[in-house]
Amino acid sequence: MSNLLDGKTIVVMGVANKRSIAWGCAKSLMDNGAKVIITYQNERLRRQLDKLVPEGTEMIECDVAEDANVEKTFQDIQAKFGNIDGVIHAIAYADKETLEGGVIDVKKDGYNLAQDVSAYSLISVSRYASRVMNPQGSIATLTYMGSTRAIPSYNMMGVAKAALEANVRYLASDLGPKKIRVNAISAGAIKTLAVTGIKNHGDLLKESEARTVDGEAVDIHQVGDVATFLMSNLSSGVTGDLIYADKGVHLLA
Ligand SMILES: NC(=O)c1ccc[n+]([C@@H]2O[C@H](COP(=O)([O-])OP(=O)(O)OC[C@H]3O[C@@H](n4cnc5c(N)ncnc54)[C@H](O)[C@@H]3O)[C@@H](O)[C@H]2O)c1
């Protein structure tokens, strides 16, 4: 608990349930004084969230598959709450068939869908969010080390994460003159809804946990605390970069 984020309004995108990394981020941001606005993908997920979030938490539907939805979401947020100070983008998707095979078998439609939701959406979110964001604002997305290595079973999602991380660098450069920073958190493997879509995810989770420096998997709250740092003015000199929150897994071959 701190008042590090007092006076800041942060939009958190991608809470599906209590296991979501976005939920770990929202919790940490709230605990450190931020006003948090949560966006959710669809009405079905909204029902889960009603049970999860503290009473009075603002929630808005936003399916990032359409630019128009993203534009409207940030316009509506500004109309209702004024300018924002940050965004957490914790969104990714690939269809089952695309995730099941190797990259060699990925079809054009599956490739485009994964890139669209998992990587392009950061561009549209940054574009429309930055129009209603105060200077010293901060945008952070979630990535995984499958972007730079051929991790078994991660397949197409690794390709999408590579694009996402390149987006972070270019967006940081584009938004620098507006004094808005863009970064990525590379989280260790955590059992969430998204991970269960990956074939052999049990092996991925087990292996990742075994490779942490203390043998215990990183959790959503530890990742959330890195998000708090990136949303705070303590990270004002950090942009276009990636911070690992994986308890050292990426260091061990
Ligand atoms: N769990 C892990 O091991 C891990 C590790 C590193 C990075 N990540 C990344 O963290 C982020 C959050 O994933 P998570 O693991 O918390 O899983 P999750 O399933 O809880 O969250 C994924 C979110 O993406 C949202 N989403 C998917 N398509 C969308 C759309 N069209 N519009 C709006 N929202 C959409 C879902 O509704 C869900 O809330 C993802 O980018 C994921 O790749 C996860």
Automatic annotation (TrEMBL):
It holds the Pfam family adh_short_C2. This is Enoyl-[acyl-carrier-protein] reductase [NADH]. Its EC number is 1.3.1.9. Keywords: Fatty acid biosynthesis, Fatty acid metabolism, Lipid biosynthesis, Lipid metabolism, NAD, Oxidoreductase. Belongs to the short-chain dehydrogenases/reductases (SDR) family. FabI subfamily. Gene3D superfamilies: Enoyl acyl carrier protein reductase (1.10.8.400), NAD(P)-binding Rossmann-like Domain (3.40.50.720). CDD domains: ENR_SDR. NCBIfam families: PRK06079.1 (NF004748). It is an enzyme of class 1 (oxidoreductase). It comes from the Bacteria. It catalyses: a 2,3-saturated acyl-[ACP] + NAD(+) = a (2E)-enoyl-[ACP] + NADH + H(+). SUPFAM superfamilies: NAD(P)-binding Rossmann-fold domains (SSF51735). Pathway: Lipid metabolism.
